[in-house]
Amino acid sequence: MKRLMLFLLTPALVPAVAVAQTTVQLSVQAPPAHPDAQATDPVAMGWMVGAPPPPERLIQRDDMSFMKFPQIRWSFSHWREFLPTAEISRGDGPVSLLPQTPRDDLDDVTFAPLGSDTPMTWAQSLSANYTDGIMVMHRGAIVYERYLGALKPQGQHIAHSVTKSFVGTAAAMLIAEGRLDRDAKVARYIPELADGAFADATVGQVLDMTTGLAYSEVYTDPDSDAFAFILAGGTMPQPPGYDGPKTTFDYLKTLKKAGEHGKDFAYKSVNTEVVGWLVSRVSGQPLAQVLSERFWAPMGMERDAYIQVDSAGVGFAAGGLNLQLRDLGRFCEMMRNNGTFNGRQIVPSAVVRDIAGGGDQTAFASAGYTTLPGWSYHNQWWISHNDHGAYMARGVHGQACYVDPKAEMIIVRFASYPQAGNALLDPTSLPAYQAIAEHLIATDLQD
Fold first, then answer.
1. Residue 230 and residue 225: Cα distance in Å, rounded?
2. By the 8 A CB rule, do 385 and 405 touch?
3. How does pLDDT run across 81-120, given as a tens digit for each residue?
4. Taking the CA of residue 161 as centre, how many other CA atoms within 13 Å lie in the half-sphere pointing to its CB?
5. In this structure, are residues 73 and 416 in contact, taking their beta carbons and an 8 Å threshold?
6. Given this model, what pLDDT does residue 427 score?
7. CA 369, CA 323: separation in Å to the nearest integer?
8. Which helix (H) or strand (E) holds 57?
9. d(CA 409, CA 372)
10. How far apart are CA 281 and CA 270, in angstroms?
């Protein structure tokens, strides 16, 4: 076991599982040097070409090369070829149309990255962030759409922790329907957790990640709880002789409390696994079916999606969603439009307003996210509290769904940045999103 863990500790092999911001307490700094996006283009490198591919171009799960850079530039767009998944059906209804009014003025929009006086263009930021696919929608229409690397328009990409916001939204809907009580103890719904860390945690505290847990989400320490978590869930192969928890639910039962629930924000993906369990328990449905019936079918999604599952078939709520970029855009646009999409009220408008309003900024500040000053976290969403009212779903290596209500804009992105933590991408992502929003507002005023 220890030998396997140590093998995985090289920086390029740190598991890209669910943590949204690995380096949250570091000051803004220059990212580590890696071969650039052009040099690591997965198509040009020829990953997985051949029958079989030559050894130097083979990507596999068992040796964890599917988590290694630059292999992730291919594997993130082919996740289902490495791990088991359950289908999230779009149903038999028609595909909802996305109007297109392409613009040719966004690539040249400039901004100053955080901590830098050197301007960067929007087009340059795509390469800087190892973008695989990106789409901008303005007033309900696609104005910009690009695919790079291994991702194609019909392809599906791992969303990592963007998954959390889908699951959190489903839980918030159950709360609005009176089927789940935000102030109730988790153990009321999941008595299997009555003897552990979550026994006296409320549903709301789990949703907002203000639980006090003896759990460290550090993927560079072989003795951290994060390794035990992903071993139980099956993202990392369970080695011969492994005698730990065999499933995610079994792992959650082992966690112990440390500190006070409801006081400080601490990003720990196991909270989302509890949320996923709550959603499935209360609805009586597996997570894949919940996401299908709540979002995919009524929204007229373009393609089925898939969620990674553990050995018991339980969906990986913290980071297992695989979906098409345009369908992520549909979800993000639905949130911008106060829960309405495809002629239907998908999410109650009060739920969307509550999410956009954010959580406890004081509790969030205690986590020390230097690239997110003044932000908060609520119902598994990240809220900026800026003057545009922007909020977002975030996932490691650059996955994003960014909602800007004032600019009537959403941006969705898939990426395969070499390092997991979004603190390294924020300097060239958040100002870029803001610059596009301001540009769209300015050009609207000129029309």
1. 9
2. no
3. 999 999 999 999 999 999 999 999 999 999 999 999 999 9
4. 27
5. yes
6. 98
7. 28
8. none
9. 20
10. 16
E strand map for 236-387: 305-308, 321-324, 340-341, 344-345, 376-378, 381-383
Tokens for 247? 């499933």
C-alpha span between 422 and 19 (Å, rounded): 9
Rounded alpha-carbon distances, angstroms, from residue 65 to 47, 57, 69, 73, 217:
12, 10, 8, 11, 21
Q: Is the CB of residue 356 less than 8 Å from the CB of residue 248?
A: no
Torsion, Cα of 376, 377, 381, 383 (10° steps): -10
Distance (Å) of CA 342 to CA 165, 207, 300, 325:
20, 28, 7, 17
Residues composing the chain: 447
Six-digit token string for 124: 């340059």
Opening angle at CA 297, ends 279 and 168, nearest 5 = 30
Burial class of residue 246 (count of CB atoms within 10 Å of its CB; 0-12, 13-18, 19+): middle
Name beta bridge partners: 403.
391, 410
Instruction: Supply the DSSP string of 260-288, one letter for each residue.
Output: -TTSS----THHHHHHHHHHHHHHTS-HH
Mean pLDDT of 305-315: 98
Encoded amino acid at 215, one letter: Y
Contacts 24+ apart (CB under 8 A), 46-51: 47/71, 47/73, 47/74, 47/150, 48/74, 48/78
| CA dist 178 → 23, 172, 183, 283, 388 (Å) | 38, 10, 12, 12, 31
Res 270 pLDDT > 70? yes
Average pLDDT, the chain: 93
- Per-residue pLDDT, averaged over 200-220, amounts to 93
Question: Which tens digits make up the pLDDT trace of 391-402?
Answer: 999 999 999 999
HSE, side-chain direction, 13 A CA sphere, residue 216: 7
**What is the Cα Rg of the chain in Å?**
21
Q: Which of 158, 145, 293, 271 is nearest to 206 (CA)?
A: 271
Stretch (H or E) spanning 208:
none
